[in-house]
Design a protein that fits this description.
single chain, two-stranded antiparallel ribbon, 6 strands
Length: about 280
Amino acid sequence: MKKSYKKDRQRLTKTEKKKRKINQTINLILRALVVLSMISQILNHNWNNVLLCIFTLILFTLPEIISKTVNITIPTTLEISVYLFIFASAFLGEVQNFYEIFTHWDTILHTLNGFLCAAIGFSLIDTINHNEDYHINMSPAFAALVAFSFSMTVGVVWEFAEYSADQYLGKDMQKDKIIQEFQSIKINETGENIPIPIKDINKTELYNSKGEKILTVEGGYLDIGIHDTMKDLIVNFIGAFVFSIFGYLYTKNKEGYRFLEIILFKTNKSSQKLE
């Protein structure tokens, strides 16, 4: 029995070391790509993208900072997923303009964000449940609810960040959308709280205070970001909800949902406290 346990521990240690090495390699490659791009942006005097590259490099340090600050070990697979997500959103999305090149890039990333953040929340609960200093024994349903709430909170805070960047830094992170109809009480001449619908908009002309036309928006009316924000929160909700359901089912029936161990936990002995 002791020999078998020792072999399992050795096998686990080798597997973890291999994962850790892969993690470090991926991290190094992603950082190198960002640095090379930053050099290129500097040579082209594109200072906005230079700042975005620096921001991406700062985000790459977050998992390690969180791990040291809270004194927990983030599962390797989950950590790699976080690095890839940061690279795909901050670097590919903003610097390489994937948000405009690929129509659904933003939607896909926000869905994955909901899924990953729920996984992080669930993983943190598992870590806390196995930490002698912070131990709390949560039921599977409550753990799933906490993971879901954690993911939605991250999603909302990110939308706050997008709105703040647009309002105070002159960015357009809440990607505007051209729409053909809207309704508003502001255009109700009677002053009543009854929205007036405007439909079949095919062109919008904008004028400055001097009466000079400054822009013509072809195809409709330029929305200022609310559709993007709500769409992001909805798909974040879907991602968070899906993972929370899987997390709940896993704690109830580990044999049927072993694949979650790859994402959530370091060993297959995890999450026993949630049962």
